[in-house]
Amino acid sequence: MFQRILVANRGEIALRVIRACRELGIESVAVFSEADRGAHYLELADEKYCIGPAPSTNSYLFFNNIIAAAEIGNAQAIHPGYGFLAENAEFARICRECDIEFIGPPHEAMNKLGDKVAARQMAMAADVPVVPGSDGLITSEAEAVRIAEEIGYPVLIKATAGGGGKGMRVARNVDDLKSGLKNAAQEAEKAFKNAGVYLEKYVENPRHIEVQILADRHGHVLHLWERDCSTQRKHQKLIEESPAPNLPEAVRQSICESACRLIRSADYDNAGTVEFIVDRDFNFYFIEVNARIQVEHPVSEQVSGIDLIEEQIRVAAGEKLSFTQDDIPRNGSAIEVRINAEDPNHDFRGSPGTITKLRVPGGRGVRFDSHVHEGYRISPYYDSMVGKLIVHRPTREQAIACMLRALDEFVIEGVATTIPLLKQILRDPAFANGEVDTRWLERTIDQFIPAE
Ligand code: MV4
Fold first, then answer.
1. Does position 125 have pLDDT exceeding 90, yes or no?
2. CA quadruple 251, 253, 259, 265: dihedral, nearest 10
3. Domain count within the chain
4. How far does residue 315's CA lie from ligand 1's centre (Å)?
5. How far does residue 164's CA lie from ligand 1's centre (Å)?
6. Same domain flag for 430 and 308
7. Active site residue 292
8. In this predicted model, what pLDDT tens digit does every residue of 161-189 receive, in sequence order?
């Protein structure tokens, strides 16, 4: 097992990893940019190193300084968290070259699954349902027109190097398709240095359901059930929960087993998430793999009782998983809300600033994963997350009531936050009835009265 782990991230996920290390008796080396100097969570690490100025490209994305901090700090492993370098195969490869364990999937699997067309082909080979579409990259406009005629409009043009909705375009007719192909390819070239695009039948108003996977290096691939992440706006998740409401048990089992089959075929190990869309008739379709720990991992931890960060560290140290699929329960209902310093009344623009007052909720079933404190300055350089409020109760109704009680207790002043909107969503009958799909919030957000 490692003696020291460098945490190559910041904020709440850095603190989450530091805490897991402490409980495992592993020393932690934190890194910080000039913008994060003085943040209280850094004091909980055994050592901390400044890796550069505020801009991410010169700090949290800067390979050389992170590797140098690992060398100076005598870390045997690096945990990348999420975002930044978490899915950077080149960084994972360089870690291996420097004989530093990357706590995440092998860079070969990251590369393979990061190519969305290759991932689709692996899904088909593993008998995992995919949306009807092109088998490979689109090689000509004529081919795209033919395929679109075959599968029927609307179709979705997607970038093979994209993900998370970046570079997607809906085409509802052949003219949309022709212009969409050009724009999507240009945008993909610019954003990902890879203009490759593919087509899929556009599934209208699907639910976004994803499966948490944990795999070791000894052939064991398990799932920690599914999460419903449909409450999102412009591909930014606001609320995630497990289990998914109103999902028939047979569909749940099939989705989770499909996810395991795909990961098993990909020579993958460590934590990962297999993402699906699910239509009104509960047909589910593989969309993409997120080869990292995700923001919303706590809801799966609450329901399964498994500490995912601890298991990531153990797997990276070569340990076998100490439990089987049958050992993994699905207890109760867990809901997470992302509390961001954004102003819902001004198009969710960032609301950086200093937190002048903070009263955090607690009590039975409440967990708040956050790095902030009174006097903490939310930086304009990074994402605006203040923290994640997670509740875990026996039933979904109790979890919603608990979350509303916790949000009512929550006091934060000095920055605008998404809390008022979150309360309105949680009180909405559509949410309470589990009828939210991925476009619901965009359809209804104008009905929510301006924040209290
Ligand atoms: C789709 C889809 C409908 N049909 N693919 C969005 C980003 C990535 N996670 C996959 N995504 C989707 N892929 C097909 N064939 C719907 C989504 C989707 C979505 C699309 C538009 C607006 C918001 C969305 C939220 C989640 C998923």
1. yes
2. -120
3. 3
4. 31
5. 8
6. yes
7. yes
8. 998 888 899 999 999 999 999 999 999 99
Closest to 110 measured CA to CA, from 331, 266, 5, 3: 266
Q: Are residues 188 and 222 in the same domain?
A: no
Owning domain of residue 15: 4-103
CATH number at residue 405: 3.30.470.20
**Pair (310, 374) in one structural domain:** yes
- Choose, from 252, 292, 314, 393, the residue flagged as catalytic: 292
- Whether 98 and 178 share a structural domain: no
Examine residue 119 and state whether it is found in any structural domain, yes or no: no
Q: How far is the CA of 396 from the centre of ligand 1 (A)?
A: 25
pLDDT, the chain, mean: 97
One-letter amino acid at 445 equals: I
Determine contact, residues 374/280, Cβ cutoff 8 Å: no
* Rounded mean pLDDT, 104-113: 97
Tokens found for residue 290: 């997120």
Q: Could you tell me if 277 and 144 lie in one domain?
A: no
Pocket test for ligand 1, best of 287, 288, 296 (most atoms within 8 A of CB): 287
Q: Are residues 400 and 290 in the same domain?
A: yes
Task: Tell which one of 235, 290, 436, 437 to mutate to probe ligand 1, the residue whose CB is within 8 A of the most ligand atoms.
Answer: 235
* Chain segment 196-253, per-residue pLDDT in tens: 999 999 999 999 999 999 999 999 999 999 999 999 999 999 999 999 999 999 999 9
Q: Over 70: is that where the pLDDT of 322 sits?
A: yes
On whether residue 126 sits in a domain, the answer given is no
Residues 186 and 252 in one domain: no
| 3 Cβ neighbours under 8 A, 6+ residues apart | 26, 27, 74, 76
Query: Would you say residue 280 lies in a domain?
Result: yes
Indicate the pairing of strand 221-233 with strand 377-378. Answer: unpaired
> Do 263 and 367 fall within a single domain?
yes
Last residue of some domain: 201, 235, 250? Answer: 201
Q: What pLDDT score does 452 carry?
A: 47
Cα-Cα end-to-end distance for the chain:
50
Question: Going along 179-251, which residue ranges are E strands?
Answer: 197-201, 207-215, 221-233, 236-242
* Coil vs helix vs strand at 230: strand
Ligand 1 neighbours by CB, cut-off 6 Å? 131, 156, 164-165, 200-203, 206, 208, 232, 235, 275, 277, 287-288, 438
The residue from 183, 201, 219 where one domain ends is 201
Could you tell me the distance, in angstroms and rounded to a whole number, from the CA of residue 165 to the centre of ligand 1? 6
